[in-house]
From TrEMBL, chain A:
This is Isoquinoline 1-oxidoreductase, alpha subunit. GO terms for molecular function: 2 iron, 2 sulfur cluster binding; metal ion binding; oxidoreductase activity. It comes from Pedobacter westerhofensis. InterPro entries: 2Fe-2S-bd, 2Fe-2S-bd_dom_sf, 2Fe-2S_ferredoxin-like_sf, 2Fe-2S_ferredoxin-type, 2Fe2S_fd_BS, Beta-grasp_dom_sf, Diverse_Oxidoreductases. Residues 1-76 form the 2Fe-2S ferredoxin-type domain. It comes from the Bacteria. SUPFAM superfamilies: 2Fe-2S ferredoxin-like, CO dehydrogenase ISP C-domain like. The keyword Aminoacyl-tRNA synthetase does not apply. Gene3D superfamilies: 3.10.20.30, [2Fe-2S]-binding domain. Keywords: 2Fe-2S, Iron, Iron-sulfur, Metal-binding, Oxidoreductase. It holds the Pfam family Fer2_2. The lineage of its organism: Bacteria, Pseudomonadati, Bacteroidota, Sphingobacteriia, Sphingobacteriales.
From TrEMBL, chain B:
This is Cytochrome c domain-containing protein. Keywords: Membrane, Transmembrane, Transmembrane helix. The chain crosses the membrane at residues 16-34. It comes from the Bacteria. InterPro entries: Multihaem_cyt_sf. The lineage of its organism: Bacteria, Pseudomonadati, Bacteroidota, Sphingobacteriia, Sphingobacteriales.
Length: 157, 214
């Protein structure tokens, strides 16, 4: 049995330690907000937080995540009110929406480490998250807005 | 029989008993000495003996240079702050940045994609528990260096990660160096075996670590 802590809840999984974390999150636990894109860490759609870092869950083995803290898009905030989520809504960022749970999870790490990111910081942080609809300019705009919202809230997330 | 029941106060050890006792003491002393010597060796490894030979040294470095400039080594010793990728050493797709510690930046840390082991499949992320570039304050660039420049850099502690001769010797078996020979599916190996590389590396160092003329 593997102990997996996802969104502050503990799960005992009877699974192969080599199983991708993404499968465990989606198929065993049933949290389908995290998406499968490429399966080889090329697109970022499967990004989740592992101990606060934006890991690609499609190539992260369950054994690496065992006993660690995993956060998915469902657990990023209590009520979909993370500054990035609010800004994404405000700027109508998604088109098809498929990549955006991964985009937001990467943006959340950026906003934590650089509360007032420049365009260059945004490019550096988000370059691993692809969007086939090409919403990059709206993503950038939303991250700047999220930084403002975060500042108004009085702290980093 | 009488001797066996003789009271202890009258006990006088025979000559053979004394000899045996002395021998046991000596054996114990030697064992302690050897153990102590092993401990000392662990703490202070034997000095690396250098026998200068510029011709042999430069010849050995030619082999070393071939390996260090192969994609498996050079791709993580780029001239810029973005690692290289593939057998053609193109800029890493997604343009991940070095960061201060060489472990990436923000949401683009190396270990976000590079796992402790190689990911199965062709051209998937290679892995190592210590995957990183050289840090920003000591970039240890290989890309674009001539044999002379690279040789000089490798033996300069101010440019080689503060490595003295002993550390340089040990570096041949460093985990990330060895990872070059298990690069994951779809990647060519360095141009010689690790054993051949190590032999050339140690030969270069032990003959004086001479830099080629060019």
């Amino acid at each position: 049995m593997i102990n997996l802590n996802v969104n502050r809840k503990s799960y005992q999984l009877d699974a192969d330690p080599d199983m991708p974390l993404l499968w465990a999150i989606r198929d065993l636990i049933g949290l389908t907000g995290t998406k499968f894109g490429c399966g080889v860490a090329q697109c970022g759609a499967c990004t989740v937080h592992l101990n606060g870092e934006a890991v690609r869950s499609c190539v992260t083995k369950l054994s690496r995540a065992a006993g660690q803290n995993v956060v998915t898009i469902e657990g990023l905030s209590a009520d979909n009110n993370h500054p990035a989520q609010l800004a994404w809504n405000e700027e109508n960022v998604p088109q098809c929406g498929y990549c955006h749970s991964g985009q937001i999870m990467s943006a959340a790490v950026l906003l934590r480490e650089k509360p007032e990111p420049t365009d260059q910081d945004i490019d550096d942080a988000m370059a691993g998250n692809l969007c086939r609809c090409g919403t990059y300019l709206r993503i950038r705009k939303a991250i700047h807005l999220a930084a403002e919202l975060q500042k108004k809230e009085g702290g980093t997330t | 029989m009488n001797r066996i029941i003789r009271p202890l106060k009258n006990f006088r050890p025979s000559k053979s008993l004394i000899v045996m006792g002395v021998m046991m003491y000596l054996v114990a002393l030697m064992a302690f000495g050897m153990n102590h010597k092993a401990e000392l060796k662990k703490e202070h490894p034997a000095p690396f003996i250098i026998k200068k030979d510029s011709v042999a040294s430069v010849k050995a470095f030619a082999a070393v240079y071939k390996v260090l400039m192969s994609p498996r080594c050079m791709n993580c010793h780029p001239s810029g702050d973005i690692p290289l990728q593939g057998d053609d050493s193109h800029l890493h797709t997604m343009f991940p940045k070095r960061g201060l510690e060489g472990k990436g930046v923000l949401a683009m840390k190396c270990a976000n994609c590079h796992q402790p082991t190689n990911t199965p499949g062709v051209h998937t992320p290679p892995g190592n528990p210590n995957w990183h570039l050289p840090p920003a304050d000591m970039k240890m660039v290989f890309q674009g260096k001539t044999p002379r420049q690279l040789a000089q850099q490798l033996i300069d502690p101010k440019r080689n990660g503060h490595k003295d001769m002993q550390k340089l010797v040990e570096h041949a078996d460093d985990g990330l160096v060895l990872a070059g020979w298990t690069p994951g599916e779809g990647r060519t190996l360095p141009p010689m075996s690790h054993a051949a590389f190590k032999k050339a590396w140690l030969t270069w160092l032990s003959t004086g670590a001479y830099a080629p003329k060019k």
